[in-house]
Amino acid sequence: MPLDFTAIDFETANSSPASACSVGLVRVRDGKVTAQTGWLIRPPAGHDEFNMWNIKIHGIHPHEVADAATWSQQIDRLCAFAGTDVLVAHNAGFDLNVLRRSCEVTGIAAPPYRSLCSLAVARKTYDLDSYRLPKAAAAAGFGEFAHHDALADARACAQIIIDAARRTATADVDALGAALGVMLTAPLASEPQRAVA
């Protein structure tokens, strides 16, 4: 099987994992980036307050998402881009939890994605003093980028997996995970819960 996956990164409005305010997606086919996209998201009601700390990190302000598509309006677009790929993220637990919780609070069943964490891959691939995304991406040969821009982060994350697969001579994400002793997570599971009005 070829090295096919979709790298994903979310930025959030506040500490709630259901407060996604932007997403970046990068499609990799046979070890090469073939498509990339990203967009702003209007967080669900009750999770839409912007914390100043988060704004300082990603630079997204409430007025910028006021007319953006809501989670319910854009989840199909996200799934259409990712297809049935394994989702790869740097600290995948965070990003997959954003996906799961955003679906839960909007009454949508979370799509059944498996995932691979590029942070865990980087820790097994490189000898660094820090495995934060900029440091790990630099070790993978990815130059400076706008950290906390969701698309730039997803692109950096993709490069880590591409480089790690090259270094380990593995042909796909399952083989990469096995070679490094990094488990791919099982599909997301959540029950849709409609909010009570």
Brief digest:
With 197 residues, this protein is α/β, with parallel strands linked by helices. The protein is built from eight helices and five strands, in the order βββαααβαβαααα. The protein has one domain (5-180): Nucleotidyltransferase, domain 5.
Helical amount among residues, as a percent range?
Answer: 40-55%
User: How many H/I helices?
Assistant: 8
| Rg | 16 Å
In whole angstroms, the N-to-C terminal distance is 47 Å
CATH class: Alpha Beta
Rounded mean pLDDT score: 94
In spatial order, strands of the major sheet run 3-2-1-4-5
What name is given to the CATH topology? Nucleotidyltransferase, domain 5
In total, how many domains does the architecture comprise? 1
Secondary-structure blueprint:
Elements: E1 5-12, E2 20-29, E3 32-40, H1 52-58, H2 62-65, H3 71-82, E4 87-89, H4 92-105, E5 115-117, H5 118-125, H6 133-139, H7 150-168, H8 173-180
Parallel strand pairs: 1-4, 4-5
Antiparallel strand pairs: 1-2, 2-3
Please characterize this protein's 3D structure.
The chain is globular. The chain has 197 residues and is of the alpha/beta class. Mean pLDDT is 94; it is low at 190-197. Strands 3-2-1-4-5 form a five-stranded mixed β-sheet, with helices on both faces. The N and C termini lie far apart (47 Å). It has one domain (5-180): Nucleotidyltransferase, domain 5 (2-Layer Sandwich), CATH 3.30.420.10. 41% of the residues are buried. The chain has eight helices and five strands.
